[in-house]
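Sample pair:
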Amino acid sequence: MNESIPLSQKLYLLGINPEKGGIISASYTAMDYVLMGSLFLELYQCKNIRFENKRIVIKESRSEIVLHQFLLDKMSKSTKPLKISRWINKFYYSLKHIRREIQQGLVEKRVIRMQPKHFLFFKWEKPILVNKQVVYKLVAEIEKQVFNGSANEDEIILLSFLKPAGLLKRIFPERDKRKLAKQKMNILMVDNQVSIAVADAISAAQAVAASAAIT
C-alpha cells in the first residue's frame, strides 16, 4: 500500500476533495488533530517512542526524518511522560508548520500541488490532487482491508484513523456499505490498543479545544 507514503500523508490525501481540491468539510476541523496523532504513530512504528497507559515514552530521540526530529526535540524537553492528548494540545501552535511539512512531502512526490488563493487581505494555499490514481488506489486498498480483513498492524492503524478524521463517508459513500464497514473495522481494531489509545486521545484533545473556544 503506497509504502513510500507515510501514514500522516495518506490521511491528508484522503481528506482532499478529489474534484474541487481543499479539505472536505467532514474532515476540515479534525484534520490537524488527526495529523498530529498519526505522527505519533509514525514515531511508534519507527521505534522512537512507546505507549504506556496512554502516555508517550521516548525510546530513541534521534531520527533522520526532519518532521519526526522536530517533534522529538520538543518532546525530549519534558521531565516526565505525558498523555497523548496533552502532547496533541502542546503542539497546537506548531500545527501550521507540521501541516506545511506534510503538504511539502506530497508536493515533492508530485501527488498534490498547492494553489495560491486570496480574498481581500487574506492569503492561503489550497491543496489540489494532481495524481488521483494514487488516492483511488489507496481507497481501493482500504476497502479490501476492511471487507477481507487484515492482520497487519500498520494497516489496522490506518483504519483506526478513518472515523476520527471524518473520512468514512468519503471512502464509503453508500450508507449500507458504510454501516457494514464500521462493524468490520470495530472487529479488526478490538485488539489493537495502540491505535485505539491514539484515536481516544484525538477525541479528548478536540473536546478540550472545543471547550476552550466556547469559554
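The longest helix spans residues 193-214.
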